[in-house]
């Protein structure tokens, strides 16, 4: 269904606008390119109604964002998923169309540091066989 739109943010002005929209996460403007993934509610609802609007379009956009992050990493770049943002402000910065709602901001570039690996929950807490 591809019920999403990807905005490719390259200008310094727009990237700095995203810093404010992401609650002043300054690294957003340091990346040479930032992808903003927006769901397209109207496209999803046209085929699947409420389920398309409330779930399928979100799945579509987040899968695309995850694959973009993996592709960037495979090319030796770094990408970080930013989920803390003001959706109205992000929409304003990228001039999102009607019925488009941001779900992910993904800065991509060369890393300035190698962050420590964060602790993960054990698989036994995440998995349940049925």
Helix proportion range: 40-55%
- The proportion of strand residues reads 15-25%
Structural class: alpha+beta
Tell me the domain tally: 1
Number of helices: 5
Number of strands: 4
- Give the low-pLDDT segments: none
Short recap of the structure:
By secondary structure, the protein is of the alpha+beta class. Helix content is 46%, strand content 20%.
Question: How does this model look, in words?
Answer:
- This protein is of the alpha+beta class.
- The protein has one domain: 3-Layer(aba) Sandwich (NADH Oxidase), CATH 3.40.109.
- The protein has five helices and four strands; from the N terminus they run E-H-H-E-H-E-H-E-H.
- The chain has a four-stranded antiparallel beta sheet with strand order 1-2-4-3.
- Helix 1 packs antiparallel against helix 4.
- The model has no long low-confidence stretch (mean pLDDT about 95).
Characteristic key phrases:
130 residues; NADH Oxidase; alpha+beta
Question: Which helices and strands, and how do they pair?
Answer:
Elements: E1 4-9, H1 12-21, H2 27-30, E2 33-40, H3 41-74, E3 78-79, H4 87-94, E4 100-109, H5 123-126
Helix pairs in contact: 1-4
């Amino acid at each position: 269904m591809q019920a999403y739109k990807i905005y490719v943010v390259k200008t310094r002005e727009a990237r700095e606008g995203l810093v404010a929209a992401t609650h002043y996460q300054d690294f957003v403007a340091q990346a040479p390119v930032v992808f903003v993934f927006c769901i397209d509610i109207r496209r999803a609802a046209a085929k699947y109604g409420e389920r398309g609007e409330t779930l399928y379009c979100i799945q579509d956009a987040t899968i695309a964002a995850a694959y973009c992050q993996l592709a960037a990493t495979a090319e030796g770049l770094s990408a970080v998923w930013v989920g803390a943002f003001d959706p109205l402000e992000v929409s304003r910065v990228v001039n999102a169309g009607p019925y488009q709602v941001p779900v992910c901001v993904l800065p991509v570039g060369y890393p300035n540091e190698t962050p420590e690996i964060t602790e993960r929950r054990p698989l036994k807490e995440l998995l349940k066989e049925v």
